[in-house]
Amino acid sequence: MEFPRGAVPVGAQWDGAGGLQYRWEPAEERGASGQQQQQRGSEAAAFGAGGRTGAWRGRARRGEAFRSFLPSFLHSEPAISLGAMDMKKRINLELRNRTPADVKELVLDNCRSNDSKFEGLSAAFESLEFLSMINVMLTSVSNLPRLIKLRKLELSDNRISGGLDVLAERTPSLTHLNLSGNKIKDINTLEPLKKLLNLRSLDLFNCEVTNLNDYRDSMFTLLPQLTYLDGYDQDDQEAPDSDVEGDGDGLDDEEEEDDDEENEEVEEEDEDDDEE
Asked: Apex CA 58: angle with CA 56 and CA 62, to 5°?
């Protein structure tokens, strides 16, 4: 990895191909000494050369910042570029001439959410099963619309500290919830999740609550419906990839099954025509 002369790495973002794109600033502007610059450059090189593999357990390609595994220059809070697209515009692009009722999967990562409002997202997305809003600067989910078919919800790397009561009412079918990298500090904050009777997988990586004594035992006691916490069950068995990723797995399969059934019906009609 080559570094711009006289520059310091100040952040990074996962690109679409699964690699890292670094952000640089002149060393004098960051107030970094030559020694600090060299140290950060070495960390970046090691990280980019493969230091992220293994410990990330497959989640890297979703862009989640588990900062406990990151080099020091990436330990800062998630940030959104000033030029980030607003959520409403992103949703319009994602629709691609479809109606909201036709959409089963929606990825809005790194958008700009103004005052934790879900602009453009409404109950009209009645078929939505997978919703990803990673790093959109959410502080609350109180404005989340009612999405009765939603099964998987990605909210990692936001600033949510509570107010989870609305999830049971707005997303009653939820099976997978990712709150990694948020501001959740205590078990009581998570108590409203008891009402999510279908919840199977919960991720709280890099939340302060994970540092509490008996964290895992307390969580499995609080949420008996839970099978996987932070990717592992009560016996420390790792969840299958489909459960860990929560990336809409199974949605395409259902569509493929529908297509197969339609193809079979067409073939049967052709056979009937041939016989006649």
From this structure: 95
State the Cα angle at 89 between 88 and 94, rounded to 5°: 95
Q: What confidence score (pLDDT) does residue 243 get?
A: 62
Amino acid 168 reads: A
Quick one: pLDDT at residue 241? Answer: 77
pLDDT digits (tens, 9 = 90+) for 98-128: 999 999 999 999 998 888 899 999 999 999 9
Amino acid in position 64: E
Indicate whether 72 pLDDT > 90: no
What letters, b where the CB count within 10 A reaches 16 and e where it falls short, cover 114-146?
Answer: eebebbbbeeebebbbbbbbbbbbbbbbeebee
The set of residues, in sequence order, having a beta carbon less than 8 Å from that of 38 and lying 6+ positions away, is none
Sole residue written with tokens 């009722």: 101
For residue 86, how many other CB atoms are within 10 A of its CB? 13
